[in-house]
Input
Amino acid sequence: MNLQTSLTAESPTDSGALSPEALVEQLARDGRAAQRVLARLSDGQKAEALRAAATALRAAGAEILAANAKDIAAGEAKGLSGALLDRLRLDEGRLAGIADAVDQVAALPDPVGEVIASSERPNGLRLSRVRIPIGLIGIIYESRPNVTADAAALCLRSGNAVMLRGGSEALHSNRAIRAALAAGLESVGIPAAAIQLVPTQDRAVVGAMLTAAGLIDMIVPRGGKSLVARVQADARVPVLAHLDGICHTFVHAAAEPGMARALALNAKMRRTGICGAMETLLLDTQFPDSESVVAGLLDAGCELRGDARAQALDPRILPASDEDWDTEYLDAVLSVAVVDGLEPAIEHIAAHSSHHTDAIVTEDAEVAERFLDEVDSAIVMVNASSQFADGGEFGLGAEIGIATGRLHARGPVALEGLTTYKWQVRGSGQARP
Output
């Protein structure tokens, strides 16, 4: 398939005559067949395939941006918020970043085949735990077209096939990106079914994916709280997810004022629509520069909603409701509370955090270590913006998502999180007595 032909195609299945369940089954069987091909590829072959996919993305730049312009126009007509439109929008710089991220994943070490641990039993049996791909991974996501490329690249690098079900907001963008990726794979002899995009927006397909136990090996939802809650409630397939990103920054009494101002502003306002954006600012009563921190946020156009002590810092701060402490705004809105030191801050975070990312600003090393030890979140930071909660910033190349559970993987999920392991046992004729 040449690139231009591929750009008009979705996954190769004709969905018109199939029920949602039959469509998912056919896609899954095609994907599992492609995954068996991926499982036989060497490190170098998978890297070559991803470099070809990145090259195809760059070659299709004009077509992808034209497709994205259709999605943006439809989103504006639909009245999507500025934050959602920002998630959806592509430009030359962002598209170059997507292609670069695919190249970066190609350059990462291949996790497949890594020996996690090995031992020898007294009877001479040699045991090894070895990383292997999970299999076929379903990704259900909303308005971010970059997820199409990130998820595909990470899954392929770790030897997994992927079934993508993007949101209607990014329909044209996702189709164009997937087509370019598939063309790149086919140019080096890898079946396009290794990266599938569900060829319909029928919501019933999501339900069919969630109940496709034995066909899809893991589901990763990326989107709003309602989407993830539905996936977790209805899935009969293992799910790797986080519900929302209610991220806190605690400015301790010993914080350096300039650092506190800069980090609070960046953590909230750099990009308000990402899951690592700060949603609650906690200010120590003994911190001497709280007025300046909140003024910087207000002057930058952020709406602040605070408790009584926070409102006393600046007359522009609105009163916070009980719901504000448990809200992921994904917009230029921030809740602010004043707390009496480290322990009340940790208690507030324990009560309201979604266990995604929480940060402290302090020059007190002992306080910093206590915060790291006692805050139970997937990512805990000292003197850094919560906006670094991103796989690329962790040196992982990209991420499939942030996991906030306690099983299998936690934090940015990249290559290692997309593998499982098996035991390999090597003997020399041992029979169990």
